[in-house]
Amino acid sequence: MNSQSSFAEYLASIKSGIAQPVFGSHGGSEIDAPHGTTIVAVRYNKGVIMAGDRRATTGNIIAQRDMQKVYPTDEFSVVGIAGTAGLAIELVKLFQVELEHYEKIEGTSLSLDGKANRLSSLLRGNLGMAMQGLAVMPLLAGFDSARSVGRIFSYDVTGGRYEEHDFYAVGSGAHFARGSLKKLSSIIQEQDDAITVAIEALYDAADDDSATGGPDVNRGIYPLVYSVDKSGVVEMDAPRIEALSRKMLQRRSVNPNGGTSTAGISGDRS
């Protein structure tokens, strides 16, 4: 990538003293900022699903019940955000502009590996803020047309990039979500299976992590879900997510702690 293909490096070249975009400038260590919580990504036979709960918290207070934490970044990739909400959203917006700028300058889209590397570089620019406790933890998923497969990438606060296989989760409820995904991921074939497994993983995270919000039937708030396959990024219809969420809740009302049976997970097959 040449310097003019990178929007962030272009900004640095026209404004002296900026080596990387900085997603904040507060020098203190005590900031009550809303935090996004749990994001899960699950591969299925034709692509990848990413789902996020909707709760944002400030300390022990629910700051927002319907926060958007999953964003399309271009035609074939999505990013989910956990950590300090304001900085995470700013990073996503810059990443979106970065990918669009590259495509306009070079006349072609970045490869999925290139996107993953570029997000790593942008995340590294927030290291100073992360050291003050204002960390951003993205999760990237996309469809790799060269391999005809969905892929998932996780990151650490230093910008380290790691490719995950089959599933992954980030955020305060990630340990509980990953435990749930380990039990259920072997049955994933179709898109509905992947969506239902992702929703159930978020439910299990919410069951043990107060910062993660489960499906809120009374308010009509359900996880935000995107799929990415060879046709591109698609946001799943709210009525479809509601229906799958209600089926999952009906199963869990019979067995609140879940179970090892994977039969009929999507509610459409026995």
The tally of beta strands, per DSSP, is: 13
How does the helix and strand content classify structurally? alpha+beta
Biggest beta-sheet profile: 8 strands, antiparallel
Radius of gyration: 19 Å
Annotated CATH architecture? 4-Layer Sandwich
Protein traits:
single chain, eight-stranded antiparallel sheet, Glutamine Phosphoribosylpyrophosphate, subunit 1, domain 1, alpha+beta, 25% strand, 270 residues
Structural summary, described in words:
Strands 1, 4, 5, 6, 7, 8, 9 and 10 form an 8-stranded antiparallel sheet that branches. A 5-stranded antiparallel sheet has the order 11-2-3-12-13, covered by helices on one side. With 270 residues, it is an alpha+beta fold. The chain has helices at 7-14, 85-106, 112-124, 127-130, 174-184, 191-208, 238-254, and strands at residues 35-36, 39-44, 47-52, 56-58, 61-64, 70-74, 77-84, 136-144, 149-155, 161-164, 167-170, 224-229, 232-235. α6 (191-208) crosses α7 (238-254).
Secondary-structure map with pairings?
Elements: H1 7-14, E1 35-36, E2 39-44, E3 47-52, E4 56-58, E5 61-64, E6 70-74, E7 77-84, H2 85-106, H3 112-124, H4 127-130, E8 136-144, E9 149-155, E10 161-164, E11 167-170, H5 174-184, H6 191-208, E12 224-229, E13 232-235, H7 238-254
Antiparallel strand pairs: 1-4, 1-7, 2-3, 2-11, 3-12, 4-5, 6-7, 7-8, 8-9, 9-10, 12-13
Helix pairs in contact: 2-3, 5-6, 6-7
